[in-house]
């Protein structure tokens, strides 16, 4: 089985990515680390536990990590994900924070990868703060990973939070900079534009959440707010990349980790992130002409096998 670590800022699409990994028979999840992002860190931890309870997988250890970016103040995405990060439909039976491991997420990342050097795939679906701190704690962290899958950044300067800033990179550009510049393992990046171009039709989404399973009911409930938000935006033609449809950003990075053949095309180049620009802070920069002379290149996902992706999405609600 593929060994997986998942670093999340658990909002609605992170929840789906976790459920996708749990449903995949070829994957063994070693732990889930939490980072402040879509919602404050306590909510992130609670949301992960809630998802694990739904899937009867509270045996997976959950670790609490960074509650702030490397510099500056945290931003969140409550307008999309709801104030609790999961669409504001609380579950009174959800487990409490006492189930979170005592060990800090950054220590846990280093400990776990040291135990399985070059065997672990790490999927990061939030700001990259924990990963940046992990490499500062132990500079050998990146080379002990097998593959890194990131949801974040943009390949054509389109933002979803500011004009040029995609949420995960904008939430901690310094951390993104450390990861993009210091991680030497094979690294896939599912950008904002890639996610938008891999949308599924709304008709597909509408029947997907109506399957009547416990998990499809959960998705329907937590997504009610954000999907209405997306559909309203589409009507106003706001931030519309590649036409209407359902986009679940974090699920594309997870799908790639579970089945690399969901990625049908990549752009192989060095990347970095803008940290200073007045309008461009957080924007990912593709060095297509190799001007930075960087050794470590990233694989920018540039095509998704939607039939295979749908199969993984179907599996997660069963
Ligand atoms: C990313 O930002 C978050 O709101 C989503 O969970 C996803 O990780 C998309 O830009």
TrEMBL record:
<dbReference type="InterPro" id="IPR036452">
    <property type="entry name" value="Ribo_hydro-like"/>
</dbReference>
<dbReference type="InterPro" id="IPR001910">
    <property type="entry name" value="Inosine/uridine_hydrolase_dom"/>
</dbReference>
<comment type="similarity">
    <text>Belongs to the IUNH family.</text>
</comment>
<protein>
    <submittedName>
        <fullName>MGC116488 protein</fullName>
    </submittedName>
</protein>
<dbReference type="Pfam" id="PF01156">
    <property type="entry name" value="IU_nuc_hydro"/>
</dbReference>
<dbReference type="GO" id="GO:0016799">
    <property type="term" value="F:hydrolase activity, hydrolyzing N-glycosyl compounds"/>
</dbReference>
<feature type="domain" description="Inosine/uridine-preferring nucleoside hydrolase">
    <location>
        <begin position="4"/>
        <end position="310"/>
    </location>
</feature>
<dbReference type="InterPro" id="IPR052775">
    <property type="entry name" value="IUN_hydrolase"/>
</dbReference>
């Amino acid at each position: 089985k593929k060994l997986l670590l998942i670093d999340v800022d658990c909002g609605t699409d992170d929840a789906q990515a976790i459920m996708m990994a749990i449903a995949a028979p070829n994957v063994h999840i070693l732990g889930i680390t939490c980072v402040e992002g879509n919602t404050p860190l306590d909510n992130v931890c609670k949301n992960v536990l809630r998802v694990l309870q739904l899937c009867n997988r509270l045996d997976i250890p959950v670790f609490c990590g960074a509650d702030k970016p490397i510099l500056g103040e945290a931003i969140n995405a409550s307008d999309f994900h709801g104030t609790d990060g999961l669409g504001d439909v609380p579950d009174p039976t959800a487990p409490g924070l006492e189930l979170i491991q005592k060990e800090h997420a950054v220590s846990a990342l280093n400990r776990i990868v040291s135990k399985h050097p070059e065997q672990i795939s790490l999927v990061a679906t939030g700001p990259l703060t924990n990963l940046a701190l992990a490499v500062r704690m132990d500079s050998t962290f990146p080379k002990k990973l097998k593959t890194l899958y990131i949801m974040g950044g943009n390949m054509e300067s389109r933002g979803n939070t500011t004009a040029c800033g995609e949420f995960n990179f904008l939430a901690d550009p310094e951390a993104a900079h450390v990861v993009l510049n210091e991680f030497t393992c094979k690294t896939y990046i599912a950008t904002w534009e890639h996610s938008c171009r891999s949308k599924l039709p709304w008709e597909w989404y509408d029947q997907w959440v109506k399957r009547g399973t416990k998990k499809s009911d959960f998705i329907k409930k937590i997504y009610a707010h954000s999907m209405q938000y997306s559909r309203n935006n589409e009507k106003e033609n706001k931030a519309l990349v590649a036409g209407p449809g359902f986009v679940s950003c974090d699920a594309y990075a997870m799908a790639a980790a579970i089945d690399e053949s969901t990625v049908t095309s990549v752009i192989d180049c060095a990347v970095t992130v803008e940290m200073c620009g007045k309008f461009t802070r957080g924007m990912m920069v593709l060095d297509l002409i190799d001007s930075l002379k960087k050794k470590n290149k990233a694989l920018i996902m540039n095509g998704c096998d939607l039939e295979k992706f749908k199969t993984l999405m179907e599996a997660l609600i069963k």
